[in-house]
Prior knowledge:
Blueprint: E1 4-5, E2 8-11, H1 20-37, H2 42-57, H3 60-71, H4 75-101, E3 104-105, E4 118-119, E5 126-130, H5 138-149, E6 153-157, H6 163-175, E7 184-186, H7 191-200, E8 203-208, H8 210-223, E9 227-231, E10 235-239, H9 245-257, E11 267-272, H10 277-290
Parallel strand pairs: 5-6, 5-8, 6-7, 8-9, 10-11
Antiparallel strand pairs: 1-2, 3-4
Helix pairs in contact: 1-7, 2-4, 3-6, 4-5, 9-10
Amino acid sequence: MTTESPTDPGFRPPIRDHSSEEILDRLARGREAQVHWRSYSLSQRVELIRRFWEFLCKDRERLIGVIHEETGKPRAEIEGMEIDAVELILKYFTRSAHRILKDRAVSRPWILFNKKAYVRYVPHGLIGLITPWNLPFLIPFGDSIPALLSGNAVVIKPSEWTTKTALYLEERFAASGLFPDRLLQVCVGSATVARSVIEGVDMVLFTGSSEVGRKVAVAAAQRLIPAVLELGGNHPMFVAEDAPLARASKAAIWGRFANSGQLCVGVERVFAAREIYKDFCSLLEVELAKLRQEGGLGSDND
């Protein structure tokens, strides 16, 4: 697999796809790691995930560089939409894990008046993540956090367009020395590799198009394993007649052009009330003219 940086047309050293044998080995090693990991208390898992984040943040500039090289994103988007967004996810789940995962008493029929019933959460085992290229750090690691806190191991099949960011995460995870060996792994390749991952995990999370999502759902259903699908959306924005137009125009530009428009929650179209339509369009033109499109990492690029 060859890769090309959006910021530099030159080809990078090729990344080799994992063979079927290597994928099977990684799946097996992931299961071994999960057996150890699930024996850790929830408090231990929370503490180790927090410590890993501290470890990863010491290498923040390198992470920014890896994401920029693969996607061409400017620093503001990398930090705001990738790294800082992951930090919010991590803080939420590490603070809330005990509340979310604690046993929960449930009602029972009167005939069982002398019994007690509970919902108890246990790990699925090995979780497969099939992730897209538009958010190559946020989605793979953001989805990994609750899976790991719940006592699962993770195998990530990233987009073939942004493999290096996932490999960087795998390398840092191992280098931290905090976790059982191979608890978080990456399988490199295209659709064939994704199918192999689905065939070997206990649950799959997919983020991508509806077309591919249907195929993932069918493959998971054939194995009777759970599948969580986050698929493409078509999001309108409505501007009412009493809306603050200056703010609305900025919001529309950001919603359409953030991440170069490659967002599942991006604004696809705008409906404006007839009374303010012309004024709103004029403000849109002004805001659109302010956009700066450069190839660099610096603050001179929107």
